[in-house]
Design goal:
Distance between the termini: 21 Å
CATH architecture: 4-Layer Sandwich
Radius of gyration: 18 Å
Strand content: 25-35%
CATH topology: Deoxyribonuclease I, Chain A
Strand order of the largest sheet: 3-4-2-1-14-13
Order of helices and strands: HEHEHEEEEEHHEHEHEEEEE
Structural class: alpha+beta
Number of strands: 14
Number of helices: 7
Helix content: 25-40%
Length: 287
């Protein structure tokens, strides 16, 4: 996704926050196991970041987040080698998926990564890494999302039309992805949605919570791009969680050199099997 006019983006962001308010949080129920705090981050690093100085900033940016789990989008081979060398102590478990253009992705984790697999493309250009980790004695499903981007065909009106034309593709992608997540399982769906509209609404309908809006009253842009001497901003990056989690805090951290900012969310996770379970995609969807 590159850019939309600032005024249009601002109006759309306002409309999204007003019309797609977060559903009430599920009631807190007694847990049979102590709650565990876990900090999760998503970071689209930008596939063009390769210079040593920029890579050093990326490493520091990830380190400062103090996350237990990081989902990465738009990685490249130089970046992966840098992360393995610089962050092996902080994240003993790493898995990277190289790809052409912006299709690289990966995980940085303090928890052992299990059952790692990649879903095929479902209309957009990117595959979707899945994994499992064990937190507090329970298995959590992980989904690293990078949905269909919007290209810049030229001109504000044309770009805006292109954004909405890609919305059905993003919606189809997220439905297919959710169909591969076990219904009712503890799950984290995190990454670059390239939208805040239909795919995001689909996640909410499936019972997932937008962790940023669970902890903050207003949405905040996670991406910016310079065009025509102006900085245009947009909200593209999200951390969603199932009802098994309770968000404690969530923030957007501005940083260089990527055009995306980090989204870092801290939440509690316990044995809340009696809580209303998320029901991601009970209907089959084919790519």
């Amino acid at each position: 996704m590159r850019t939309l006019p600032s005024l249009v983006v601002t109006l759309l962001l306002f409309a999204s926050s007003a019309s797609a308010a977060e559903p009430p949080a599920p009631a807190t129920l007694p847990a049979t196991a102590p709650a565990v705090r876990v900090r999760v981050a998503t970071y689209n690093i930008n596939y063009a970041v390769r210079e040593p100085r920029d890579l050093d900033v990326v490493v520091q940016t990830i380190r400062e987040a103090k996350a237990d789990l990081v989902a990465i989008q738009e990685g490249n081979g130089v970046l992966y080698a840098t992360l393995r060398k610089a962050l092996a102590k902080e994240f003993p478990h790493m898995q990277f998926y190289p790809g052409a253009w912006a299709s690289g992705s990966g995980w940085l984790s303090k928890f052992p990564l299990k059952k790692m697999r990649v879903l095929p493309r479902a209309g957009g250009p990117f595959e979707t890494p899945l994994a499992q980790v064990e937190i507090g004695g329970r298995v959590v499903e992980l989904v690293n999302v990078h949905l269909q981007p919007t290209n810049i065909p030229g001109g504000a009106a044309v770009t805006l039309r292109a954004f909405f034309q890609f919305e059905p593709i993003r919606e189809k992608e997220i439905r297919f992805i959710l169909s591969k997540v076990p219904a009712g399982a503890p799950a984290l769906v995190i990454g670059d949605m390239n939208t805040f509209l239909r795919a995001v609404d689909e996640l909410k309908r499936a019972g997932f919570t937008d962790s940023f809006l669970a902890a903050n009253t207003e949405p905040q842009s996670t991406w910016r791009w310079e065009m025509d001497g102006k900085t245009h901003t947009f909200r593209l990056d999200f951390v969603f969680h199932s009802a098994h989690f309770t968000t404690l805090s969530s923030r957007v951290i501005k940083s260089e050199p990527s055009d995306h900012y980090r989204v870092v969310s801290e939440r509690e996770f316990g044995d809340t099997a009696a809580a209303p379970a998320a029901t991601p995609a009970t209907r089959p969807v084919t790519p």
